[in-house]
Amino acid sequence: MPPKLLDDHVRFRFAGGDDVVSVALDCDPVIPGDRALVRSGDVWELALPRPALQRIEYRFTVTRTVDDAESTETVLDPDNPSSVETAFGSRSVMEMPGYAVPAWLAAPAVPGGFTPLSLEGETEADVPVTVWEPDGTAGQALPLLLVHDGPEYDRLASITQFSAAKIASGELPPHRVALAHPVLRDAWYSGSPKYLRTIAQQGLWRLHEHAPISGPVVVMGASLGGLTALLVGMLDADEIGGVFVQSGSFFQARHDGQESSYKYFDRIARRVQEIIDTPEATRPLRIGLTWGGLEENAANNRDMAAALRRAGHDVSHTEVADLHNYTAWRDALEPHLTEVLRDLWGDRQG
């Protein structure tokens, strides 16, 4: 039986035979509650206190006796047909009453095509970028949305479908989407000066050479990619007018001790503190932020939003009832990314 919401808790069940020794719920550690299911006959059961979330992504960790030895595997819920692809593989998903996928996923959308490019700059390896543009716009000057972790954003959060639908509806003008590939993600997306300059200088020039750019460039990303989007925006690149960050990894020692063993923690923390300590922006940006109210990055995102506003940036932010995952980021694109892009680009009529 799939999980079921019962008043103040969610009931999880797993049907196991005599060989099953234990069953545990595998889900985001920030979700409160026990993880061990309790056996009742042939069924293992857990009452998880209802979290303040619209969805729960999960698996079961099942230990069985096999040939007088114990074997453990993590599996999807065999009784739940609902699942989602994530950056870390498939997960079963429990959706709370009232949850709905974004309407733009099924809305009419303009057709478009993809062109692979390579951005050569200061990084040891070139930065691959795949550019999406609406059909019939080749060579036209259009606004540009530059997306870090671009291929995953497209595969798991449908970012080019979002753009295609918003162009079709007239909510946004025709524009291009540059999907930046994270070849050396940890090294590049942790405040690397060489990577940041490659994107903001030679990278934007190469993209403009491929197709003229009109209006302010908007840079976006999530997690480490969101940190990187903001750091790119902070450089002295007049072409960049906006930043959109989802669950940015704005690590600070006072909030993020659990991340302190990460190789690039200190570099990230220094860059974050520099931004927080900036009293006044020399080049104010339009900045949008979203994050999950329960996720580990919530506190550092609240600090960053407040600091950016104090410095004079035009900031909007929202906390969503989800966690640190691509479905949460997809679901928050509308209206929050739409608002940032419309403020900078206008709609189809300008």
Mean pLDDT rating = 96
Low-confidence parts lasting 5 or more residues at pLDDT below 50?
A: none
Return the CATH topology of the largest domain.
Rossmann fold
Binned strand content:
25-35%
Radius of gyration: 22 Å
Named at the architecture level, the CATH assignment of the largest domain is: 3-Layer(aba) Sandwich
CATH C-level of the largest domain: Alpha Beta
Please bin the fraction of helical residues.
25-40%
Pfam families: Esterase
InterPro entries: AB_hydrolase_fold, Esterase-like, Mycobacterial_A85_antigen
Protein name: Ferric enterobactin esterase
Organism: Knoellia locipacati
Structure description:
The protein is α/β, with parallel strands linked by helices. It folds into two domains: 4-95, Immunoglobulin-like, CATH 2.60.40; 104-345, 3-Layer(aba) Sandwich (Rossmann fold), CATH 3.40.50. It is built from nine helices and 17 strands. It has helices spanning 150-157, 159-169, 185-188, 193-210, 224-234, 265-276, 298-310, 326-331, 333-345; strands spanning 4-6, 9-15, 20-27, 38-40, 43-49, 55-66, 69-75, 83-86, 89-95, 112-119, 127-134, 144-147, 176-180, 217-222, 240-246, 286-292, 314-320. An eight-stranded mixed beta sheet has the order 10-11-13-12-14-15-16-17, sandwiched between helices. Strands 3, 6, 7, 8 and 9 form a five-stranded antiparallel beta sheet that branches. Helix 4 (193-210) crosses helix 5 (224-234). InterPro entries: AB_hydrolase_fold, Esterase-like, Mycobacterial_A85_antigen. It holds the Pfam family Esterase. This is Ferric enterobactin esterase.
